[in-house]
Amino acid sequence: MSVEKGTLEIKNLSKSFKVDNNLLPILNNINIKFPAGAFISIIGGSGCGKTTLLRIMLGLDTNYEGEALMDGERIEGPGSNRGIVFQDHRLLPWLTVEENVAFGLDKLNRKAKKLVVDEHIKLVGLSGFESAYPSQLSGGMAQRVAIARALANKPEILLLDEPLGSLDALTRIHMQKELERLWLLEKITMVMVTHDVDEAIYLSDKVVIMSSRPGVIKKIIDVPSSRPRDRASSEFMQIKAEILKEFHLGTEYPFAYAI
Amino acid sequence: MIKNLLHRFALRDKLLALIVPLLVLTLWQSVLSLHLFSELILIPPLTLVSTFIELASSGDLTNNILASLQRVITGFLVGGSLGFILGVVTGLSPFMNRVLKPLIKALQQVPEFAWMPLIILLFGIDELAKVVFVAIGAFYPMLFNTYQGVSGVPKKYQELAWVFDYRRFSYLTKVVIPSALPSIITGIRLSLGLSWMFVVGAELFGADAGLGYMMTWGRQLFQIDIVMVGLIVIGAIGLVMNSLLLIIEKRLLSWRIAFDGRTL
Predict the structure, then answer these.
(1) Which helix (H) or strand (E) holds A219?
(2) C-beta atoms of A103 and B164 within 8 A
(3) Whole domain around residue A97: which residue ranges?
(4) What are the beta bridge partners of residue A217?
(5) What is the CATH number of domain B47-252?
(6) Which residues in chain A are closer than 8 Å to B261, comparing Cβ atoms?
């Protein structure tokens, strides 16, 4: 069976943690396919297992039932075909921007490394900051470096774990545009975990809604609108309402919203 | 402008640091002028200066400093490297840590000077014995601080190296050592400091050169001025070494920049 490169598939996946001899289910029978080249967001309340799911896709967690397949092959551990951007940028504070972007490129020779690094620093718009240390960068800039580091490895799929979660509202909107630009440019699969409904709708082809304890996929919502998307359009609002309704049903204390 | 101001503050701090020593000197001189003690016991500061000049110009002082310095450096390199290697090994491998920790902890309970009789029996009273003694002193602070730094690499960086498929060696050089560097440098500072203490101790047990030897000799001749010059020289060299290491530390850890843009 051949699959297009960049496809990630989760089949009948369940996972539980053992707490005081009791099995605490975290993920329950997850089935989802991330087609090559798509942008898909996963949203859900805290504790819905979305980060665990991402860790499984990354290969950091291999202890589960069911299947997680990258390009049709079982994920046994981390691999260079999957890149990751964490919520905390996780740049190494003792390396410069340049050295951080080169972090995954150990196997390349000096010249090739320099070429790839320069290309990706330029890609995220940080030319001129090559020799800055992470402590000298703003949150948004640091996250750009983290994205450049992940992309420099030429992954087929980029996993983003609440990548913009710690940024202020304005930087966040700006970075969402940047992510969209990079996604259109690189033409790779992107899977983003987020809390932010607007962000999910703005960026994604599909929004996966998960509910908590145990984590199950509640609904997958298509976002058919053309790009770039208008956050104030009625279509956008409609999809937002549809997503919020899903959460509304799941909470004991309903919250009010107006369209 | 701001840099100038900082410089001026730094200068003021340095001047402030001189106040207490100057006060002590004044007090010293004034007690002397009261003739409360014999000048054989309470040496006038000027006598110290002339003894210092005498010892320095005869070449005795330089020879003794070099003899001690050589023992310090050799002992520090041997004991420090051993401590560093064991620190890295036990810090990286929980298994090795479980295997080695009980023995290390037990040996650590032995006061270092209690090793002296055994060292003399095994190595005699020559150079080797002194270097071994210094090495024991240098070993523990290096071991503990390296262990602490290496075992304390944040999990998020371990994960990162895992995701990027790092091999052992690059993981060590690019992640572990830089992350542990602040601890390791503290280890080096403590280790060198103890090496100085131990070399003087070792030379008190019998030597034919070195600052400890010079002081023993001064004691035997009841020349307190020589003993005191020894004390001052040891203190001064220790201070110089410490400040040199602080400068190196600042250089190596230049990535740690404080919120206001100053280096920590």
Answers:
(1) strand A216-222
(2) yes
(3) 82-154
(4) A210
(5) 1.10.3720.10
(6) 136
Tell me which amino acid residue A68 is: A
How far apart CA A154 and CA A82 sit, in angstroms, is 9
Cβ–Cβ gap B181/A80 under 8 Å: no
Number of domains in chain A: 1
Residue A54 domain flag: no
* Alpha-carbon span A148 to A135, nearest angstrom: 17
How does B250-264 read in b/e, with b if 16+ C-beta sit within 10 Å?
eeebebebeeeeeee
Cα B12–chain centre separation: 27
A60 and B162: CB-CB below 8 Å?
yes
Note the Cα A96 to chain centre separation in Å. 24
What confidence score (pLDDT) does residue A259 get? 47
Report the alpha-carbon angle B173-B178-B181, nearest 5: 125
One-letter amino acid for residue B224 of the chain: I
Lowest mean pLDDT among A16-30, A169-183, A197-211: A16-30
Phi, psi of A16 (to 5 degrees): -135, 150
What average pLDDT does the structure give for chain B? Answer: 85
If DSSP states are collapsed to H, E and C, what string results for chain B? CHHHHHHHHHHHHHHHHHHHHHHHHHHHHHHHHCCCCCCCCCCCHHHHHHHHHHHHHCCHHHHHHHHHHHHHHHHHHHHHHHHHHHHHHHHHCHHHHHHHHHHHHHHHCCCHHHHHHHHHHHHCCCHHHHHHHHHHHHHHHHHHHHHHHHHCCCHHHHHHHHHCCCCHHHHHHHHHHHHHHHHHHHHHHHHHHHHHHHHHHHHHCCCCCCHHHHHHHHHHCCCHHHHHHHHHHHHHHHHHHHHHHHHHHHHHCCCCECCCCCEC
**Tell me, what's the ipTM?**
0.79
* Residue type (1 letter), B242: N
**Disruptive mutation site among A55, A92, A138 for chain B (greatest number of B CBs within 10 Å):** A92
> Does A93 sit within 8 Å of B156, measured CB to CB?
no
- Asked if residue A125 is part of any domain, the answer here is yes
pTM: 0.79
B163 touches chain A (CB under 8 A): yes
Cα A48 to chain centroid distance, Å, stands at 15
Q: Report, as an integer, the average pLDDT of B52-60.
A: 88
- Check whether A247 has a pLDDT greater than 70: yes
Residues of A in contact with B172 (CB under 8 A): none
Task: Rounding to the nearest 10 degrees, give the CA dihedral for residues B14, B17, B18, B21.
Answer: -160
Cβ separation B156–A58 shorter than 8 A: no
